[in-house]
Fold:
Amino acid sequence: MRVVRAYRYALNLTSAQQRMVLAHCGAARVAHNWGLARVKANLDQRRAERSYGIAGAELTPPLSWSLYSLRREWNQAKEQVAPWWRECSKEAFNTGLDQLARALGNWDDSRKGNRKGRRMGFPRFKSRHRCAPSCRFTTGAIRVEPDRRHVVLPRLGRLATFESTRKLARRVEAGTARILGATIRRAGRRWQVAFTVEVEQHERCPDQPGAVAGVDVGIKHLAVLSTGEVIANPRHLDTARRRLRRAARRLSRRYGPLGYPSERTSPGRTLATACPRVADPESAGALADRAMLA
Structure:
């Protein structure tokens, strides 16, 4: 049986490598915003023509938003839109266009009722300040180095990792795993790479198939054994929320009435550690400044 798994590792990048990675993520954002602007302009034009009473045959032809069509249009316009496109891998631009094609397809299916769940809104433009930078690679040199401390990505070259990659390297060397792609993304203050791997997995059989164990999946207890022993719920979410509240209170206390920090240490560092979605810890300080000045 083959399943698809993800192996994620934290990267130890140099300053030059961080600039290269940011350039690739920015290229993906540029391609996404360019394609979204074209699709939105086409839809707005057709909507305006309908309001003027123009018949369906005389409307502006609709613009296809499939990945193939977007990629073909991008190849024709990239010299004018991004004359620096040769500095980045083609996979960076394909990342933004693929994300846009998926988002538009999900929005169209949701609008027509072909997609379950709540109604999805129209895709938005990506901002460098609000969106986590990311880039996906599906072709080219994608591998784990034999020293199990480095990975190789197209155009980015050899990147060091904080932890060992032996779990993935052993499977690849044994031939029981095949790397399908890699996604590099910034989470908090650290860059991470996630490998999408197709792994051979054998179905496991229980050692004691006749044994019976009761599991309580309620709120109070994690598990209740047949012997009557009760295992408490670890409540990781509640612990993380308490840590985040303490960090927010600590941040607010370190800012005076004029919005200046009362200590030399960065007040947003603890908050960024408690909440990894804060891409820039200094942005927390900027929010506090605006709140105090308001």
Observations:
- Residues 15-51 form the longest helix (37 residues).
- Residues 277-294 have pLDDT under 50 and may be disordered.
